[in-house]
Amino acid sequence: VQDIIKVAVDAMGGDIGIDSTVEAAVKVANRLKNIQIVLVGDKQKVEHKLNSLKLKNQKQIKVQHSSQVVAMDELPSSALRGKKDSSMRVAINLVKSGKVSACVSAGNTGALMATAKFVLKTLPGIDRPAITTAMPTKNGFVRVLDLGANIDCTSMQLYQFAIMGYVLAKTMDNNSDPSVGLLNVGVEEIKGSEQIKEAHALLSKIKNLNYYGFVEGDDIFSGTTDIVVADGFVGNVLLKTTEGLVKMIVLFLKQAYSANIFAKIVALLSLPVLKNFKRKLDPRRYNGASLLGLNGIVIKSHGSADVLSFASAIEVAYEEVANDVTKKLQDAFSVYKMEK
Amino acid sequence: VQDIIKVAVDAMGGDIGIDSTVEAAVKVANRLKNIQIVLVGDKQKVEHKLNSLKLKNQKQIKVQHSSQVVAMDELPSSALRGKKDSSMRVAINLVKSGKVSACVSAGNTGALMATAKFVLKTLPGIDRPAITTAMPTKNGFVRVLDLGANIDCTSMQLYQFAIMGYVLAKTMDNNSDPSVGLLNVGVEEIKGSEQIKEAHALLSKIKNLNYYGFVEGDDIFSGTTDIVVADGFVGNVLLKTTEGLVKMIVLFLKQAYSANIFAKIVALLSLPVLKNFKRKLDPRRYNGASLLGLNGIVIKSHGSADVLSFASAIEVAYEEVANDVTKKLQDAFSVYKMEK
Fold first, then answer.
1. Which label site among A325, B205, B224, B225 has the fewest CB atoms less than 10 Å from its CB?
2. Do A237 and B216 count as a contact with CB atoms less than 8 A apart?
């Protein structure tokens, strides 16, 4: 008998909101028999949407009312102080009280991070949580952190991110010893900022970590390492640059294949050929970033997530609970703390 | 009558060296009647290569002997102290003495920057030179700086980079008022590091600059602004990430089109369709980064540049001389200096 895995969903968050989140929840519930989802939001609206969908087992989805919504452009401090009954806050509270094991939101990233940190706190030995997600590489995927939670990182924070990434990959990816790279502008020891050089020195010393050393921007997609560590400013820029570049290339391909009637015919013939190509690059498959290092599992979905995309984020939450990520992080940091 | 434009080429630099640089020089000389190129390097080897090629007008290319070569992995300090007769150093010396108006090298970036700074010095009002190149966007191209010369940038340096980028684009791109964006992790005023916020405040105040404000990673390829300013660490990561991602996508396309016999046939049909697509993304067309802010024009080619690619870099040097970029920068900074 599989354990029941309980996940709270901020049904109101994101650019699309209920039309994406509720349908995604039903999709995931119909696929995974042992998930129970609590949809948090405007009870009437959520139930109205829910009634329009085909849920196989009614027991798998519950609705919990909340009266407020955090706006996408709201200041984190204002959400924290003024929105104590927001769908986001109530979903996080459910993790805190142990009624669910994880929560998922497509809402305001800053507010989600601030609220999650305030309500759940970080695990012992972890100063600041990091945002991380998987990105496609030539031969699989890479986990990159931090993607924007921490603008100025100390060497100790980068060191902690490396350990967090290592534990996450080891726990989730069926990889007994994932390699960790530290993002720099060159692979020579003399290059980089003081924080990077210090973090490199710290990481070079610890045992029980497969530390590869410095990697550069092009190593990310070559799959040189399983994890890439960067400060949140650099990580955020590279994530958004990547999204923008993929969009541009897809646009260029579409333009090429619609230039004239011959091109349009070749485009039709190319559809089956490019199916796998499109799948490999589809950002929806990679949706669901972890707010790593908290005392509880919190998954951030892309704000513009559609149903397929938001369903991926719920499944990331499900997988992290199933693999007991929080406990594994806790255990690891109790060991690494002694080693320091 | 067009003025003669004189350019020195470090013939020994880069992964390929003479086989790329000398052939590229001949190619450009045959195309541009008013360019004169001085090839600097091992006289015997350079002339041997030169004699194997078809140069229409022998007067367009001269060879200047130098006895040393800067290694691709050599420390900048060692190149500066120990390689006073390197092809790179002699090429830069020719700019300093006024015998040529620009130089081009595919050699060691750190050594080129250190030597150029030492020999040529920066223009009045410019603290540090920046590396910049054009990158493709949805509807044209964007100039990004700094791409890696300066790891930790002060707000004043970012401010200077913005003005340098503005002047370069205005001078080179037939754009009377190019827009300048400052790369950040969000567009709200409260986001970003202290340096970024200070640079934003400085840039918001100056007249005669089309300052757009903050841009994010995805704005680069959307073409939101004509210039994007970032510190050298972030710029270098985004440049290399971009290169790596394009390579990966091209690989995925090739894999898709060779998966089976049907795919291979569609691939053949797609060749003419994808010709323009390939051209738009071809990194060789964008080769040639400017070391901007020096008292003289120095162009850095990608280390792995082939003939077509290195020829682009020589043409960037030619265009910057033809448009009198150094003089325009000098004039601009004498004005901005007074305004501060």
1. B205
2. yes
